[in-house]
Amino acid sequence: MTSRQVKSVEHHFAEQLLNMSLDASVAVDESGDILAATKSICDLFGWKREDATGQNIRHLISESSLEQFDHYIVECLGAETGPSQNMMGKRKDGSCFPIELTLREVDDPQDQIHFIGVFKDISEQRKSQNKLDEYVERLKQSRREMKRKDFQLKSAMSIVERANQAKSEFLANMSHEIRTPMTAILGYTDILKENPGNHENLELIEIIQNNGSHLLQVINDILDLSKIEMGDFEVRKVRCSPIRILQEVIDEYQPRASQKGLSLQAHYQESLPETIQTDPGRLKQVLANLVSNAVKFTSEGRIELEVRMCSQSRQDRILQFSVADTGIGIPAEKLKHIFEPFTQADSSTSRNYGGTGLGLTLSHKLVQLLGGNLRVQSALNRGSVFSVTLNVGSEVDLQAGQELGFRFNSENADSGLSAEENLQLRRENQGTILLVDDTPEIRRLFTYLLNKMGLEVKTASNGKEAVEQVNAAVEQNKAFDLILMDMQMPVMSGYEAVQLLREQEIQIPVIAITAHALVSDREKCLTAGCTDYLSKPVKFDVLFEMVQRYLPARAVLQLNHT
Length: 562
Known about the structure:
transferase, Heat Shock Protein 90, membrane, EC 2.7.13.3, two-component regulatory system, nucleotide-binding
Protein backbone atom coordinates (compact mmCIF):
# COMPACT_ATOMS: atom_id res chain seq x y z
CA MET A 1 0.00 0.00 0.00
CA THR A 2 1.40 3.33 -1.10
CA SER A 3 1.70 6.29 1.24
CA ARG A 4 -1.01 8.01 -0.73
CA GLN A 5 -3.32 5.06 -0.11
CA VAL A 6 -2.40 5.03 3.59
CA LYS A 7 -3.28 8.70 3.94
CA SER A 8 -6.56 8.11 2.13
CA VAL A 9 -7.47 5.27 4.53
CA GLU A 10 -6.51 7.33 7.53
CA HIS A 11 -8.54 10.25 6.28
CA HIS A 12 -11.54 8.02 5.66
CA PHE A 13 -11.14 6.34 9.05
CA ALA A 14 -10.98 9.71 10.86
CA GLU A 15 -14.01 10.95 8.96
CA GLN A 16 -16.02 7.84 9.92
CA LEU A 17 -15.04 8.22 13.59
CA LEU A 18 -16.17 11.84 13.58
CA ASN A 19 -19.45 10.92 11.93
CA MET A 20 -20.09 8.22 14.53
CA SER A 21 -19.41 10.58 17.44
CA LEU A 22 -22.37 11.94 19.36
CA ASP A 23 -20.35 15.05 20.11
CA ALA A 24 -20.22 17.87 17.58
CA SER A 25 -16.73 18.69 16.32
CA VAL A 26 -15.75 21.78 14.32
CA ALA A 27 -12.59 23.06 12.65
CA VAL A 28 -12.13 26.80 13.19
CA ASP A 29 -9.79 29.26 11.47
CA GLU A 30 -7.93 32.09 13.12
CA SER A 31 -10.98 34.39 12.90
CA GLY A 32 -13.23 31.84 14.59
CA ASP A 33 -15.11 30.90 11.45
CA ILE A 34 -16.13 27.29 11.11
CA LEU A 35 -14.28 25.55 8.27
CA ALA A 36 -15.84 22.12 8.74
CA ALA A 37 -18.23 20.34 11.10
CA THR A 38 -19.35 16.79 11.82
CA LYS A 39 -22.88 15.57 11.08
CA SER A 40 -23.75 15.56 14.77
CA ILE A 41 -23.74 19.36 14.76
CA CYS A 42 -27.24 19.13 13.31
CA ASP A 43 -28.47 16.96 16.18
CA LEU A 44 -26.78 19.13 18.77
CA PHE A 45 -27.30 22.68 17.44
CA GLY A 46 -29.89 22.30 14.66
CA TRP A 47 -27.40 23.50 12.00
CA LYS A 48 -26.84 21.50 8.86
CA ARG A 49 -23.18 20.89 8.11
CA GLU A 50 -23.24 23.06 5.04
CA ASP A 51 -25.12 25.85 6.85
CA ALA A 52 -22.77 25.74 9.81
CA THR A 53 -19.73 26.09 7.56
CA GLY A 54 -18.83 29.76 7.38
CA GLN A 55 -20.62 30.63 10.65
CA ASN A 56 -18.53 31.97 13.49
CA ILE A 57 -18.10 29.59 16.39
CA ARG A 58 -19.46 32.30 18.69
CA HIS A 59 -22.89 31.66 17.15
CA LEU A 60 -22.85 28.31 18.96
CA ILE A 61 -22.29 30.02 22.31
CA SER A 62 -24.99 31.60 24.46
CA GLU A 63 -24.66 35.34 25.06
CA SER A 64 -24.37 34.65 28.77
CA SER A 65 -21.23 32.56 28.17
CA LEU A 66 -19.46 34.63 25.49
CA GLU A 67 -17.16 36.37 27.93
CA GLN A 68 -16.22 33.01 29.46
CA PHE A 69 -15.65 31.66 25.92
CA ASP A 70 -13.31 34.50 25.03
CA HIS A 71 -11.22 33.89 28.14
CA TYR A 72 -11.12 30.21 27.36
CA ILE A 73 -9.73 30.79 23.85
CA VAL A 74 -6.94 32.91 25.30
CA GLU A 75 -6.09 30.12 27.76
CA CYS A 76 -5.91 27.59 24.93
CA LEU A 77 -3.46 29.64 22.79
CA GLY A 78 -0.05 28.03 23.02
CA ALA A 79 -1.25 25.29 25.35
CA GLU A 80 -0.69 21.68 24.34
CA THR A 81 -3.55 20.52 26.47
CA GLY A 82 -6.09 22.33 28.57
CA PRO A 83 -9.12 21.57 30.62
CA SER A 84 -12.57 21.50 29.16
CA GLN A 85 -15.04 24.10 30.30
CA ASN A 86 -18.74 23.98 30.95
CA MET A 87 -20.80 26.79 29.55
CA MET A 88 -24.11 27.43 27.80
CA GLY A 89 -24.47 26.61 24.09
CA LYS A 90 -27.04 28.12 21.72
CA ARG A 91 -29.00 26.25 19.10
CA LYS A 92 -30.02 27.67 15.74
CA ASP A 93 -33.49 28.40 17.07
CA GLY A 94 -32.00 30.46 19.91
CA SER A 95 -32.65 27.96 22.71
CA CYS A 96 -29.81 27.41 25.12
CA PHE A 97 -28.50 24.24 26.74
CA PRO A 98 -25.47 23.25 28.82
CA ILE A 99 -22.39 22.07 26.94
CA GLU A 100 -18.87 20.95 27.67
CA LEU A 101 -16.44 22.61 25.21
CA THR A 102 -12.92 21.33 24.53
CA LEU A 103 -10.64 23.49 22.35
CA ARG A 104 -7.24 22.45 21.02
CA GLU A 105 -4.91 24.67 19.03
CA VAL A 106 -3.78 22.95 15.78
CA ASP A 107 -0.46 23.26 14.02
CA ASP A 108 -1.76 23.23 10.42
CA PRO A 109 0.99 23.17 7.73
CA GLN A 110 -1.39 24.93 5.37
CA ASP A 111 -2.17 27.50 8.05
CA GLN A 112 -5.91 27.15 7.68
CA ILE A 113 -7.25 25.29 10.76
CA HIS A 114 -6.41 27.11 13.93
CA PHE A 115 -8.61 25.31 16.51
CA ILE A 116 -10.47 22.08 16.75
CA GLY A 117 -13.53 22.36 19.00
CA VAL A 118 -15.57 19.53 20.46
CA PHE A 119 -19.03 20.25 21.88
CA LYS A 120 -20.66 17.76 24.24
CA ASP A 121 -24.29 18.01 25.38
CA ILE A 122 -24.27 17.75 29.16
CA SER A 123 -27.98 18.41 29.67
CA GLU A 124 -28.58 14.99 31.25
CA GLN A 125 -25.42 15.29 33.27
CA ARG A 126 -26.52 18.73 34.41
CA LYS A 127 -29.96 17.37 35.32
CA SER A 128 -28.30 14.61 37.30
CA GLN A 129 -25.98 17.14 38.88
CA ASN A 130 -28.92 19.39 39.67
CA LYS A 131 -30.72 16.46 41.25
CA LEU A 132 -27.57 15.62 43.15
CA ASP A 133 -27.22 19.24 44.20
CA GLU A 134 -30.84 19.27 45.29
CA TYR A 135 -30.30 16.05 47.18
CA VAL A 136 -27.17 17.45 48.81
CA GLU A 137 -29.04 20.61 49.68
CA ARG A 138 -31.86 18.58 51.17
CA LEU A 139 -29.27 16.64 53.13
CA LYS A 140 -27.78 19.90 54.32
CA GLN A 141 -31.23 21.15 55.26
CA SER A 142 -31.95 17.85 57.00
CA ARG A 143 -28.63 18.13 58.79
CA ARG A 144 -29.43 21.68 59.83
CA GLU A 145 -32.86 20.52 60.96
CA MET A 146 -31.31 17.61 62.84
CA LYS A 147 -28.85 19.97 64.50
CA ARG A 148 -31.72 22.26 65.41
CA LYS A 149 -33.76 19.38 66.80
CA ASP A 150 -30.67 17.99 68.52
CA PHE A 151 -30.15 21.37 70.12
CA GLN A 152 -33.80 21.46 71.16
CA LEU A 153 -33.56 17.89 72.45
CA LYS A 154 -30.40 18.67 74.41
CA SER A 155 -32.05 21.79 75.77
CA ALA A 156 -35.11 19.79 76.74
CA MET A 157 -32.92 17.06 78.26
CA SER A 158 -31.02 19.70 80.16
CA ILE A 159 -34.30 21.04 81.50
CA VAL A 160 -35.41 17.50 82.40
CA GLU A 161 -32.07 16.79 84.05
CA ARG A 162 -32.30 19.98 86.05
CA ALA A 163 -35.87 19.08 86.98
CA ASN A 164 -34.81 15.57 87.96
CA GLN A 165 -31.88 16.98 89.89
CA ALA A 166 -34.19 19.38 91.66
CA LYS A 167 -36.59 16.52 92.35
CA SER A 168 -33.74 14.34 93.63
CA GLU A 169 -32.54 17.12 95.89
CA PHE A 170 -36.08 17.70 97.09
CA LEU A 171 -36.55 13.99 97.82
CA ALA A 172 -33.17 13.84 99.56
CA ASN A 173 -33.95 16.88 101.68
CA MET A 174 -37.48 15.67 102.41
CA SER A 175 -36.10 12.28 103.37
CA HIS A 176 -33.54 13.91 105.66
CA GLU A 177 -36.03 16.29 107.25
CA ILE A 178 -38.57 13.52 107.90
CA ARG A 179 -36.33 10.60 108.77
CA THR A 180 -34.24 12.57 111.26
CA PRO A 181 -37.16 13.41 113.62
CA MET A 182 -38.63 9.94 113.00
CA THR A 183 -35.32 8.50 114.22
CA ALA A 184 -35.74 10.46 117.44
CA ILE A 185 -39.44 9.56 117.83
CA LEU A 186 -38.98 5.83 117.31
CA GLY A 187 -35.68 5.70 119.17
CA TYR A 188 -36.93 7.47 122.29
CA THR A 189 -40.15 5.42 122.35
CA ASP A 190 -37.95 2.30 122.45
CA ILE A 191 -36.12 3.80 125.42
CA LEU A 192 -39.38 4.74 127.19
CA LYS A 193 -40.68 1.24 126.56
CA GLU A 194 -37.89 -0.17 128.72
CA ASN A 195 -39.26 1.71 131.76
CA PRO A 196 -42.88 2.65 130.98
CA GLY A 197 -43.82 3.23 134.64
CA ASN A 198 -47.26 1.65 134.38
CA HIS A 199 -49.42 -0.32 131.96
CA GLU A 200 -51.28 2.77 130.71
CA ASN A 201 -47.99 4.46 129.78
CA LEU A 202 -46.91 1.32 127.96
CA GLU A 203 -50.09 1.40 125.87
CA LEU A 204 -49.52 5.08 125.02
CA ILE A 205 -45.90 4.38 124.06
CA GLU A 206 -46.97 1.50 121.81
CA ILE A 207 -49.55 3.76 120.13
CA ILE A 208 -46.85 6.33 119.41
CA GLN A 209 -44.50 3.61 118.20
CA ASN A 210 -47.07 1.92 115.94
CA ASN A 211 -48.18 5.19 114.37
CA GLY A 212 -44.58 6.30 113.93
CA SER A 213 -43.75 3.02 112.20
CA HIS A 214 -46.82 3.39 109.98
CA LEU A 215 -45.85 6.94 109.04
CA LEU A 216 -42.31 5.80 108.27
CA GLN A 217 -43.66 3.06 106.00
CA VAL A 218 -45.78 5.56 104.10
CA ILE A 219 -42.73 7.82 103.70
CA ASN A 220 -40.64 4.89 102.46
CA ASP A 221 -43.32 3.86 99.94
CA ILE A 222 -43.60 7.39 98.54
CA LEU A 223 -39.83 7.72 98.25
CA ASP A 224 -39.44 4.30 96.63
CA LEU A 225 -42.15 5.04 94.06
CA SER A 226 -40.57 8.40 93.29
CA LYS A 227 -37.15 6.78 92.87
CA ILE A 228 -38.55 4.13 90.52
CA GLU A 229 -40.26 6.76 88.35
CA MET A 230 -37.05 8.83 88.27
CA GLY A 231 -34.98 5.80 87.27
CA ASP A 232 -32.87 6.27 90.41
CA PHE A 233 -33.63 2.80 91.69
CA GLU A 234 -31.78 -0.43 91.23
CA VAL A 235 -32.02 -4.00 92.38
CA ARG A 236 -29.00 -6.17 93.05
CA LYS A 237 -29.25 -9.92 92.58
CA VAL A 238 -27.27 -12.01 95.05
CA ARG A 239 -27.43 -15.55 96.37
CA CYS A 240 -29.93 -15.82 99.20
CA SER A 241 -32.18 -18.37 100.91
CA PRO A 242 -35.88 -18.24 99.97
CA ILE A 243 -36.82 -20.08 103.16
CA ARG A 244 -34.91 -17.62 105.31
CA ILE A 245 -36.76 -14.76 103.64
CA LEU A 246 -40.05 -16.45 104.54
CA GLN A 247 -38.86 -16.94 108.11
CA GLU A 248 -37.99 -13.26 108.48
CA VAL A 249 -41.41 -12.20 107.19
CA ILE A 250 -43.15 -14.63 109.55
CA ASP A 251 -41.06 -13.39 112.49
CA GLU A 252 -42.03 -9.80 111.74
CA TYR A 253 -45.80 -10.30 111.43
CA GLN A 254 -46.48 -13.23 113.77
CA PRO A 255 -47.08 -10.95 116.80
CA ARG A 256 -49.53 -8.75 114.91
CA ALA A 257 -51.42 -11.78 113.57
CA SER A 258 -51.57 -13.33 117.05
CA GLN A 259 -53.04 -10.12 118.48
CA LYS A 260 -55.95 -10.49 116.03
CA GLY A 261 -56.31 -14.20 116.73
CA LEU A 262 -55.15 -15.15 113.22
CA SER A 263 -53.13 -18.19 112.24
CA LEU A 264 -50.02 -17.17 110.25
CA GLN A 265 -48.35 -20.18 108.66
CA ALA A 266 -45.69 -20.82 106.05
CA HIS A 267 -45.36 -23.81 103.72
CA TYR A 268 -42.77 -24.93 101.23
CA GLN A 269 -42.24 -27.91 98.98
CA GLU A 270 -40.11 -30.86 99.99
CA SER A 271 -37.52 -29.88 97.39
CA LEU A 272 -36.61 -26.22 96.98
CA PRO A 273 -33.50 -24.31 95.92
CA GLU A 274 -31.34 -23.76 98.96
CA THR A 275 -30.24 -20.49 97.39
CA ILE A 276 -31.63 -18.31 94.63
CA GLN A 277 -30.45 -15.29 92.68
CA THR A 278 -32.52 -12.21 93.51
CA ASP A 279 -32.58 -9.08 95.64
CA PRO A 280 -33.49 -10.43 99.10
CA GLY A 281 -34.28 -7.02 100.56
CA ARG A 282 -36.73 -6.10 97.81
CA LEU A 283 -38.31 -9.57 97.72
CA LYS A 284 -38.79 -9.44 101.49
CA GLN A 285 -40.26 -5.93 101.13
CA VAL A 286 -42.85 -7.24 98.66
CA LEU A 287 -43.78 -10.29 100.74
CA ALA A 288 -43.92 -8.21 103.91
CA ASN A 289 -46.28 -5.78 102.21
CA LEU A 290 -48.55 -8.60 101.05
CA VAL A 291 -48.58 -10.25 104.50
CA SER A 292 -49.19 -6.88 106.18
CA ASN A 293 -52.22 -6.32 103.94
CA ALA A 294 -53.45 -9.85 104.62
CA VAL A 295 -53.28 -9.28 108.37
CA LYS A 296 -54.94 -5.88 108.01
CA PHE A 297 -57.87 -7.10 105.91
CA THR A 298 -58.48 -10.42 107.69
CA SER A 299 -60.56 -10.44 110.87
CA GLU A 300 -60.72 -14.20 111.41
CA GLY A 301 -59.27 -17.32 109.91
CA ARG A 302 -55.75 -17.81 108.62
CA ILE A 303 -52.98 -16.41 106.45
CA GLU A 304 -50.71 -18.77 104.56
CA LEU A 305 -47.36 -17.88 103.02
CA GLU A 306 -46.11 -20.48 100.55
CA VAL A 307 -43.15 -20.91 98.19
CA ARG A 308 -42.92 -23.61 95.57
CA MET A 309 -41.01 -24.49 92.42
CA CYS A 310 -43.16 -24.00 89.31
CA SER A 311 -40.71 -25.21 86.67
CA GLN A 312 -37.02 -25.66 86.08
CA SER A 313 -34.65 -26.14 83.17
CA ARG A 314 -30.95 -25.73 82.54
CA GLN A 315 -31.41 -22.01 81.96
CA ASP A 316 -34.33 -21.08 84.20
CA ARG A 317 -35.92 -21.94 87.49
CA ILE A 318 -39.29 -20.42 88.28
CA LEU A 319 -40.34 -19.92 91.89
CA GLN A 320 -43.75 -18.79 93.05
CA PHE A 321 -44.36 -17.08 96.38
CA SER A 322 -48.01 -16.78 97.36
CA VAL A 323 -49.85 -15.08 100.24
CA ALA A 324 -53.38 -16.37 100.83
CA ASP A 325 -55.86 -15.00 103.37
CA THR A 326 -59.48 -15.48 104.43
CA GLY A 327 -60.17 -11.77 104.58
CA ILE A 328 -62.69 -9.40 103.04
CA GLY A 329 -61.64 -10.09 99.46
CA ILE A 330 -61.75 -7.77 96.45
CA PRO A 331 -64.73 -7.25 94.10
CA ALA A 332 -64.13 -8.58 90.59
CA GLU A 333 -64.62 -5.17 88.96
CA LYS A 334 -61.91 -3.67 91.17
CA LEU A 335 -59.22 -6.29 90.50
CA LYS A 336 -57.92 -4.72 87.29
CA HIS A 337 -57.23 -1.44 89.11
CA ILE A 338 -55.77 -2.92 92.29
CA PHE A 339 -52.13 -2.14 91.35
CA GLU A 340 -52.80 1.47 90.37
CA PRO A 341 -51.46 4.10 92.79
CA PHE A 342 -53.77 5.45 95.50
CA THR A 343 -56.34 2.78 94.59
CA GLN A 344 -58.22 0.67 97.11
CA ALA A 345 -61.01 -1.79 96.56
CA ASP A 346 -63.63 0.45 98.19
CA SER A 347 -63.80 4.08 99.24
CA SER A 348 -64.57 2.96 102.78
CA THR A 349 -61.44 0.79 102.93
CA SER A 350 -59.13 3.59 103.99
CA ARG A 351 -61.65 4.73 106.63
CA ASN A 352 -62.06 1.25 108.10
CA TYR A 353 -58.55 -0.15 107.69
CA GLY A 354 -56.26 2.80 106.94
CA GLY A 355 -53.60 2.93 104.26
CA THR A 356 -52.87 5.00 101.18
CA GLY A 357 -53.16 2.40 98.43
CA LEU A 358 -49.44 2.76 97.59
CA GLY A 359 -48.27 -0.58 98.93
CA LEU A 360 -49.57 -2.79 96.13
CA THR A 361 -48.45 -0.31 93.47
CA LEU A 362 -44.94 -0.33 94.88
CA SER A 363 -44.95 -4.12 95.23
CA HIS A 364 -46.07 -4.51 91.62
CA LYS A 365 -43.28 -2.24 90.36
CA LEU A 366 -40.67 -3.93 92.57
CA VAL A 367 -41.62 -7.38 91.26
CA GLN A 368 -41.30 -6.08 87.70
CA LEU A 369 -37.83 -4.73 88.52
CA LEU A 370 -36.96 -8.18 89.86
CA GLY A 371 -38.02 -9.60 86.49
CA GLY A 372 -41.21 -11.28 87.70
CA ASN A 373 -44.98 -10.93 87.84
CA LEU A 374 -47.41 -10.13 90.64
CA ARG A 375 -50.95 -11.43 90.20
CA VAL A 376 -54.04 -11.59 92.37
CA GLN A 377 -57.08 -13.84 92.64
CA SER A 378 -59.86 -12.84 94.97
CA ALA A 379 -63.50 -13.37 95.83
CA LEU A 380 -65.56 -10.95 97.89
CA ASN A 381 -65.83 -12.03 101.54
CA ARG A 382 -63.87 -15.21 100.82
CA GLY A 383 -60.29 -13.97 100.74
CA SER A 384 -57.45 -13.21 98.33
CA VAL A 385 -54.33 -14.90 96.95
CA PHE A 386 -51.42 -12.75 95.78
CA SER A 387 -48.76 -14.62 93.78
CA VAL A 388 -45.22 -13.47 93.02
CA THR A 389 -43.59 -15.45 90.20
CA LEU A 390 -39.83 -15.00 89.75
CA ASN A 391 -37.17 -16.46 87.50
CA VAL A 392 -34.40 -17.13 90.02
CA GLY A 393 -31.85 -18.17 87.38
CA SER A 394 -29.89 -21.36 86.89
CA GLU A 395 -27.30 -20.86 89.63
CA VAL A 396 -29.17 -22.53 92.48
CA ASP A 397 -28.47 -25.53 94.67
CA LEU A 398 -31.33 -27.99 95.02
CA GLN A 399 -31.69 -29.49 98.45
CA ALA A 400 -34.58 -31.12 100.22
CA GLY A 401 -36.47 -28.76 102.46
CA GLN A 402 -36.40 -31.21 105.35
CA GLU A 403 -32.60 -31.35 105.16
CA LEU A 404 -32.25 -27.63 105.74
CA GLY A 405 -33.11 -27.96 109.39
CA PHE A 406 -35.09 -24.74 109.15
CA ARG A 407 -38.21 -24.33 111.25
CA PHE A 408 -40.74 -21.54 111.18
CA ASN A 409 -41.47 -19.79 114.45
CA SER A 410 -42.05 -16.37 115.84
CA GLU A 411 -38.94 -16.35 118.04
CA ASN A 412 -35.73 -14.78 116.83
CA ALA A 413 -33.12 -17.42 117.54
CA ASP A 414 -30.22 -16.07 115.52
CA SER A 415 -27.70 -16.17 118.37
CA GLY A 416 -29.11 -18.98 120.52
CA LEU A 417 -28.87 -16.70 123.59
CA SER A 418 -31.54 -15.10 125.71
CA ALA A 419 -32.20 -11.37 125.56
CA GLU A 420 -30.52 -10.95 128.97
CA GLU A 421 -27.42 -12.82 127.80
CA ASN A 422 -27.25 -10.79 124.61
CA LEU A 423 -27.57 -7.55 126.57
CA GLN A 424 -24.88 -8.69 129.00
CA LEU A 425 -22.52 -9.42 126.10
CA ARG A 426 -23.25 -5.97 124.68
CA ARG A 427 -22.46 -4.30 127.98
CA GLU A 428 -19.16 -6.18 128.24
CA ASN A 429 -18.08 -4.93 124.83
CA GLN A 430 -15.32 -2.32 124.81
CA GLY A 431 -14.27 0.45 122.47
CA THR A 432 -14.38 4.18 121.94
CA ILE A 433 -16.64 5.59 119.26
CA LEU A 434 -16.82 9.08 117.81
CA LEU A 435 -20.44 10.02 117.09
CA VAL A 436 -20.87 12.90 114.64
CA ASP A 437 -24.32 14.45 114.10
CA ASP A 438 -25.59 18.02 113.99
CA THR A 439 -28.88 17.19 115.78
CA PRO A 440 -28.56 17.19 119.61
CA GLU A 441 -31.51 14.80 120.03
CA ILE A 442 -29.89 12.26 117.69
CA ARG A 443 -26.54 12.55 119.46
CA ARG A 444 -28.25 11.94 122.78
CA LEU A 445 -30.20 8.97 121.42
CA PHE A 446 -27.21 7.25 119.82
CA THR A 447 -25.02 7.96 122.84
CA TYR A 448 -27.59 6.15 124.99
CA LEU A 449 -27.72 3.19 122.60
CA LEU A 450 -23.93 2.94 122.31
CA ASN A 451 -23.47 3.27 126.08
CA LYS A 452 -25.98 0.45 126.42
CA MET A 453 -23.58 -1.67 124.35
CA GLY A 454 -20.79 -0.88 126.79
CA LEU A 455 -19.02 1.60 124.50
CA GLU A 456 -17.42 4.91 125.38
CA VAL A 457 -18.81 7.71 123.18
CA LYS A 458 -17.35 11.05 122.15
CA THR A 459 -19.48 13.44 120.10
CA ALA A 460 -19.03 16.15 117.49
CA SER A 461 -21.66 18.36 115.87
CA ASN A 462 -20.09 18.71 112.41
CA GLY A 463 -17.34 17.35 110.20
CA LYS A 464 -14.79 19.99 111.15
CA GLU A 465 -15.08 19.16 114.84
CA ALA A 466 -14.85 15.45 113.99
CA VAL A 467 -11.62 15.85 112.03
CA GLU A 468 -10.09 17.93 114.82
CA GLN A 469 -11.02 15.34 117.47
CA VAL A 470 -9.71 12.45 115.35
CA ASN A 471 -6.37 14.20 114.77
CA ALA A 472 -6.06 15.08 118.46
CA ALA A 473 -6.82 11.48 119.47
CA VAL A 474 -4.26 10.11 117.00
CA GLU A 475 -1.59 12.51 118.32
CA GLN A 476 -2.30 11.27 121.87
CA ASN A 477 -2.11 7.65 120.68
CA LYS A 478 -5.77 7.20 121.66
CA ALA A 479 -7.31 6.72 118.24
CA PHE A 480 -11.03 6.05 118.06
CA ASP A 481 -12.08 2.47 117.29
CA LEU A 482 -15.00 3.50 115.10
CA ILE A 483 -16.68 6.63 113.74
CA LEU A 484 -20.43 7.01 113.20
CA MET A 485 -20.82 9.91 110.79
CA ASP A 486 -23.92 11.81 109.73
CA MET A 487 -23.34 12.95 106.15
CA GLN A 488 -25.40 16.13 105.91
CA MET A 489 -24.15 18.71 108.40
CA PRO A 490 -23.33 22.43 108.48
CA VAL A 491 -19.77 23.85 108.54
CA MET A 492 -18.31 20.64 107.04
CA SER A 493 -20.37 17.74 105.71
CA GLY A 494 -19.68 14.12 106.48
CA TYR A 495 -18.52 13.56 102.88
CA GLU A 496 -15.90 16.29 103.18
CA ALA A 497 -14.79 15.09 106.62
CA VAL A 498 -14.31 11.46 105.52
CA GLN A 499 -12.43 12.50 102.37
CA LEU A 500 -10.13 14.67 104.47
CA LEU A 501 -9.47 11.84 106.94
CA ARG A 502 -8.66 9.43 104.11
CA GLU A 503 -6.31 11.99 102.55
CA GLN A 504 -4.54 12.10 105.92
CA GLU A 505 -4.24 8.29 105.69
CA ILE A 506 -6.43 7.77 108.75
CA GLN A 507 -8.07 4.39 108.19
CA ILE A 508 -10.47 4.22 111.14
CA PRO A 509 -13.74 2.51 110.03
CA VAL A 510 -16.42 5.10 109.28
CA ILE A 511 -20.08 4.11 109.23
CA ALA A 512 -22.22 6.63 107.36
CA ILE A 513 -25.56 7.28 109.06
CA THR A 514 -27.76 9.28 106.73
CA ALA A 515 -31.42 10.11 106.43
CA HIS A 516 -31.17 10.18 102.64
CA ALA A 517 -32.75 7.28 100.81
CA LEU A 518 -31.75 7.44 97.14
CA VAL A 519 -29.93 4.59 95.39
CA SER A 520 -26.86 6.72 94.79
CA ASP A 521 -26.49 7.66 98.48
CA ARG A 522 -24.77 4.40 99.42
CA GLU A 523 -22.35 4.65 96.49
CA LYS A 524 -21.72 8.32 97.29
CA CYS A 525 -20.84 7.45 100.89
CA LEU A 526 -18.56 4.59 99.89
CA THR A 527 -16.89 6.71 97.21
CA ALA A 528 -16.18 9.38 99.82
CA GLY A 529 -14.31 6.77 101.85
CA CYS A 530 -16.93 5.42 104.26
CA THR A 531 -16.63 1.79 105.29
CA ASP A 532 -20.35 1.05 105.39
CA TYR A 533 -23.75 2.70 105.36
CA LEU A 534 -26.86 2.86 107.57
CA SER A 535 -30.10 4.66 106.77
CA LYS A 536 -32.12 6.40 109.48
CA PRO A 537 -34.04 5.46 111.48
CA VAL A 538 -31.72 2.77 112.84
CA LYS A 539 -32.98 0.02 115.13
CA PHE A 540 -30.88 -0.96 118.13
CA ASP A 541 -30.17 -4.50 116.87
CA VAL A 542 -29.11 -3.22 113.44
CA LEU A 543 -26.83 -0.64 115.01
CA PHE A 544 -25.39 -3.25 117.37
CA GLU A 545 -24.67 -5.67 114.50
CA MET A 546 -22.97 -2.93 112.47
CA VAL A 547 -20.86 -1.73 115.42
CA GLN A 548 -19.89 -5.30 116.28
CA ARG A 549 -18.84 -5.94 112.69
CA TYR A 550 -16.36 -3.06 112.54
CA LEU A 551 -14.99 -2.85 116.06
CA PRO A 552 -11.36 -3.99 116.40
CA ALA A 553 -10.75 -7.73 116.61
CA ARG A 554 -10.06 -7.60 120.35
CA ALA A 555 -13.53 -6.21 121.08
CA VAL A 556 -15.24 -8.70 118.82
CA LEU A 557 -13.32 -11.61 120.30
CA GLN A 558 -14.30 -10.49 123.79
CA LEU A 559 -17.93 -10.25 122.67
CA ASN A 560 -17.89 -13.74 121.22
CA HIS A 561 -16.06 -15.48 124.06
CA THR A 562 -17.23 -13.75 127.22
